[in-house]
Design a protein that fits this description.
Elements: H1 2-23, E1 25-30, E2 37-42, E3 46-52, E4 63-73, E5 76-82, E6 89-98, E7 102-105, H2 110-113, E8 114-115, H3 118-127, E9 135-139, H4 140-147, H5 157-177, H6 187-202, H7 211-215
Antiparallel strand pairs: 1-2, 1-9, 2-3, 3-4, 4-5, 5-6, 6-7, 6-8, 7-9
Helix pairs in contact: 5-6
Length: about 220
Amino acid sequence: MKRTLLLFSFILFFQITAIAQKLEGTWYFLTSDMLGITQMKIETHTFTSTDMKWDFTPTIAPIKNTVLKTIEKNGNFYLILSNKKDTKVQVYVFSNFKEDTSFSYPILDDEHAVFETVQLAEKFIETDTKERFGLICYSEKEMGRIKQLKPLQEISEEEKALFQIKVVEKQQIFMNRYMEMDLNFMFAYLYIPNMARNELILMGYNGIVTDAEIGKLIKKN
């Protein structure tokens, strides 16, 4: 019996370690001038976030939380973190994971992100099957690639028009479905600029740019 329990413990340990290793590393998401770049450093036992300017200069001291548990479920990765403010725990969910490239990060509202205990957080995760919009987060390697993409100065008028069409279409889809998704009320302010910059990246342009540079691509009526 003891040998069976020991074997089970080893298997569980290696499963948890394997899940954590997929997420481990430094990731970034891009928003607007208000927030700039957010760096997320994920390690086996710690999660550290730092807000940065567009030149990667930190604007605040890093915020570090303890990772209590990492779970892979229903195609998502979940981190259960300690909460610095009190004894509660907080859930982060990452979806559409592309190893060493990117993932999607929906910022949940408090009702679906903050729990009294780890057990209550796990209960939520067990039944969470909802698809949500998320901020696109890039790996450090992918950010290096993005920096080497074409500058916005090279974008053509035709590409500007296509960019505007894509952004308006995706913004409309988002606004129609936003209220269904248990997202934090601030999420909309972050999602639209994040989505716009990701569209530029998909078009082959460096999306690490200011709001003013994005504004030049939008035709004024």
